[in-house]
């Protein structure tokens, strides 16, 4: 993590689990970002209390209201972040917000598939579009430099469950809607990497490990990795990302995950 130099970062789904873990680690860096934007649906609600506690101690933390399934909310969030940056760009967008519902192959329903796909796949697409001007501005601030987190990056939080080639995700959780949404998110990541490379923006999908969060714990098994351990390792991965990593699917230890 020592090599990670980021002036500004936005984390979605930042009020709990991996999201708040990322925010806490960014704030605790020896040279923390000038701006850490933590986005969540209800910044004043009880679920955001951890963020509010952090904000009272860190003036560089800004909590942003955001519903990733609502285009108007996404545009408003981008406008608010732009106001705070005051002419600077956004270096790092982490699309972490995601949901799942426990339905099997036989019981999955249209409503669940639609809601989960909208949140886990369409949301990151719309966020990439809305924050593209700020990401481009950050990339333009370091002309000639290679792709890296110090320039401009989109990280889409994926899962082994989205790997078509590997059966391990299915062995852990046979949740069709979630797995399909993450497979689609991986394809979106590849598309973003191809479409945004000319703007100097690196795009990658990242599997955080089987982490001890409310969502992972709801499948009835005990995950092996703590939030802090996962986040620390992921930040190490981010610090080492280069041009060769754009459009790839990596895990929390930096290993390539099969599509």
Characterization of the model:
This protein is of the alpha/beta class and 259 residues long. Helices cover 42% and strands 13% of the residues. It has eight helices and seven strands. It has helices at residues 17-27, 49-55, 71-85, 110-140, 168-172, 176-196, 214-217, 227-240; strands at 8-11, 35-40, 61-65, 92-95, 153-157, 202-207, 249-251. The chain has a seven-stranded parallel beta sheet with strand order 3-2-1-4-5-6-7, sandwiched between helices. The chain is globular. The model has no long low-confidence stretch (mean pLDDT 91).
Annotate the secondary structure layout.
Elements: E1 8-11, H1 17-27, E2 35-40, H2 49-55, E3 61-65, H3 71-85, E4 92-95, H4 110-140, E5 153-157, H5 168-172, H6 176-196, E6 202-207, H7 214-217, H8 227-240, E7 249-251
Parallel strand pairs: 1-2, 1-4, 2-3, 4-5, 5-6, 6-7
How would the global form be characterised?
globular
Distance between the termini: 26 Å
**Helical percentage:** 40-55%
> How big a fraction of the residues is strand?
5-15%
Quaternary state reads single chain
Return residue spans where pLDDT drops below 50 for at least 5 consecutive residues. Answer: none
Order of helices and strands: EHEHEHEHEHHEHHE
Number of beta strands: 7
Structural class: alpha/beta
Give the biggest sheet.
7 strands, parallel
Radius of gyration over all CA atoms, rounded: 17 Å
Strand order of the main beta sheet, please? 3-2-1-4-5-6-7
* Mean of all residue-level pLDDT scores: 91
């Amino acid at each position: 993590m020592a090599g990670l130099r980021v002036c500004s970062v936005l984390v979605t789904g930042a009020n709990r689990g991996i999201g708040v873990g990322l925010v806490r680690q960014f704030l605790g860096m020896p040279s923390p970002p000038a701006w850490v934007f933590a986005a969540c649906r209800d910044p004043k609600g009880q679920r955001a209390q951890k963020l509010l506690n952090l904000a009272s101690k860190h003036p560089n933390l800004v909590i942003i209201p955001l519903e990733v399934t609502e285009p108007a909310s996404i545009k408003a969030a981008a406008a608010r972040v732009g106001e705070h940056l005051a002419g600077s760009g956004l270096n790092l967008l982490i699309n972490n917000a995601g949901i799942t519902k426990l339905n099997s192959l036989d019981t999955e329903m249209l409503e669940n598939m639609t809601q989960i796909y909208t949140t886990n796949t369409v949301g990151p697409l719309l966020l990439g579009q809305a924050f593209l001007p700020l990401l481009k501005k950050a990339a333009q601030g370091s002309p000639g430099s290679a792709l890296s987190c110090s320039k401009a990056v989109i990280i889409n939080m994926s899962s082994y469950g989205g790997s078509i080639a590997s059966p391990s995700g299915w062995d852990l959780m046979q949740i069709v809607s979630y797995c399909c949404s993450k497979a689609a998110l991986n394809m979106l990541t590849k598309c973003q990497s191809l479409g945004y490379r000319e703007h100097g923006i690196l795009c990658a999908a990242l599997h955080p490990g089987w982490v001890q969060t409310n969502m992972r714990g709801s499948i009835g098994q005990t995950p092996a990795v703590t939030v802090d351990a996962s986040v620390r390792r992921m930040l190490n991965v981010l610090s080492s990302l280069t041009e060769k990593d754009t459009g790839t699917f990596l895990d929390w230890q930096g290993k390539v995950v099969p599509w």
